[in-house]
């Protein structure tokens, strides 16, 4: 199965992707994580990406599409993958159609009023990428999953979050229609119920598909 996770910043794409990756044994490919890794390592792609991610803007389509194309050509993607945060524009979706066959798009709809608090209170594990929220961490500074150090993403501040939400509305939300027309969109509602509730709903749908 080749799956796309679609949804606004903070909708829970990463949270669901780590669980889905464990359950179905598919690699979790997050373009945001790839850019953050490049920024950390000071690569040329990282230097370019930083100027966009710091402002909550999208990295140019050509660069992003090339990275994903290379990543999907690797051996671990042969039996399926989870794309988190790609595509994010119609141009990216059209490019993806040329080098991949997508089976389903998991779209997480969520009330925008929940997102600012979710993102500004998020902490992420430096080692495994698991997301937490300060409201449930009880002061913990290490990851319950792997013991890694938790940190706050540079783009998780009110000004950059607002810009990311605007970019989502303008450039990414049109993908909902794009994939509805292809007949592969699966709609879910993100809420503040524990992530396992949404995870169960997504698995119930994916389990019905051929693998
Ligand atoms: P990216 O890293 O993809 O960020 P994003 O899309 O803004 O999405 P987030 O990772 O912030 O949200 P999420 O949906 O994964 O939420 P999470 O599960 O963590 O991209 C970053 C940047 O990279 C972009 O701005 C852009 O510059 C660049 N980029 C990336 N892809 C690109 C592309 N294709 N083209 C061009 N540029 C690109 O959850 C959020 C919080 O909510 C956490 O604290 C979590 O614990 C909490 N939470 C989750 N579920 C629940 C729940 N059920 N109840 C309560 N809290 C919950
Ligand atoms: Mg994410």
Write the layout of secondary structure elements.
Layout: E1 2-7, H1 13-24, E2 28-30, H2 31-41, H3 44-53, H4 61-72, E3 81-84, H5 90-99, E4 104-110, H6 115-120, E5 122-125, E6 131-133, H7 134-137, E7 150-151, H8 158-172, H9 174-182, E8 185-190, H10 195-206
Parallel strand pairs: 1-3, 1-4, 2-3, 4-8
Antiparallel strand pairs: 5-6, 5-7
Helix pairs in contact: 1-10, 2-3, 4-5
InterPro entries: Adenyl_kin_sub, Adenylat/UMP-CMP_kin, Adenylat_kinase_CS, Adenylate_kinase_lid-dom, P-loop_NTPase
GO biological process, one term: AMP salvage
GO molecular function: AMP kinase activity; ATP binding; zinc ion binding
Summarize the structure in words.
The chain is 48% helix and 17% strand. A five-stranded parallel β-sheet has the order 2-3-1-4-8, sandwiched between helices. A three-stranded antiparallel β-sheet has the order 6-5-7. With 211 residues, it is of the alpha/beta class. A hairpin with a 5-residue loop joins strand 5 (122-125) and strand 6 (131-133). The chain is globular. The longest helix is centred in the last third of the chain and has 15 residues, at 158-172. It has ten helices and eight strands. Helix 1 packs across helix 10 (195-206), helix 2 packs across helix 3 (44-53) and helix 4 runs parallel beside helix 5. It has helices at 13-24, 31-41, 44-53, 61-72, 90-99, 115-120, 134-137, 158-172, 174-182, 195-206; strands at 2-7, 28-30, 81-84, 104-110, 122-125, 131-133, 150-151, 185-190. The site of BIS(adenosine)-5'-pentaphosphate has 35 residues, from helix 1, helix 2, helix 3, helix 6 and strand 6. Magnesium ion is lined by residues 13-14, 30, 32.
């Amino acid at each position: 199965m080749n799956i796309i996770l679609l949804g606004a910043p903070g909708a829970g794409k990463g949270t669901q992707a780590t669980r889905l990756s464990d359950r179905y044994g598919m690699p979790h490919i997050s373009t945001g994580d790839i850019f953050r890794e490049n920024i950390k390592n000071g690569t040329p792609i990282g230097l370019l990406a930083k100027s966009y991610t710091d402002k909550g803007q999208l990295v140019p389509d050509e660069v992003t599409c090339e990275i994903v194309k290379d990543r999907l050509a690797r051996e671990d993607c042969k039996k399926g993958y989870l794309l988190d945060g790609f595509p994010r524009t119609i141009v990216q979706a059209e490019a993806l159609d040329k080098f991949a066959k997508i089976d389903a798009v998991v779209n997480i709809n969520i009330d925008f009023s929940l997102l600012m608090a979710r993102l500004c209170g998020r902490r992420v594990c430096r080692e495994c990428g698991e997301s937490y929220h300060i409201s449930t961490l009880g002061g913990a500074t290490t990851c319950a999953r792997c013991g890694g150090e938790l940190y706050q993403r540079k783009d998780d501040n009110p000004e950059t979050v607002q810009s990311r939400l605007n970019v989502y509305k303008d450039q990414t939300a049109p993908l909902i229609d794009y994939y509805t027309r292809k007949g592969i969109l699966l709609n879910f509602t993100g809420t503040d119920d524990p992530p396992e509730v949404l995870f169960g709903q997504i698995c119930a749908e994916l389990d019905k598909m051929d693998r």
